């Protein structure tokens, strides 16, 4: 994978993934969607107008550390204001994050990633318009936050991660975290090119 680039003539943002990379990205995005929708904060099968007017969202900070990181408390010094803010915003924010992750899944599948990866040597060419590329970028941020939270990544701890043996599952997960960061960086460069 060489990262994202911008096609000079069409303005499309393009990338080529191996089948393994595309499947890994789809899996991560799918896990994020599942996590975001695993609680009652996101209304399902609701009339769009009714959903806009439904302010019965959660009022407490999520118990899952990843969700707490993705939806931090807005007013740390005022519990009542924080609960009201969360009630009015979290459902919509979850839905937006979920839709961004689904855009990655749809983009990979539209580019030819089969429902189950069985073919060796498969390559997926993804072409994104700038708006869709920005959606992917937002989801990459969410994916990195989720991975960093699960791994316990902290600022300045690079030496710890690079000292782990390759066979340590944490090292492998950290490599994925860094790979998503690379994708994010090249996507930003492609969008600003």
From TrEMBL:
InterPro entries: AosR. It holds the Pfam family DUF2017. It comes from the Bacteria. This is DUF2017 domain-containing protein.
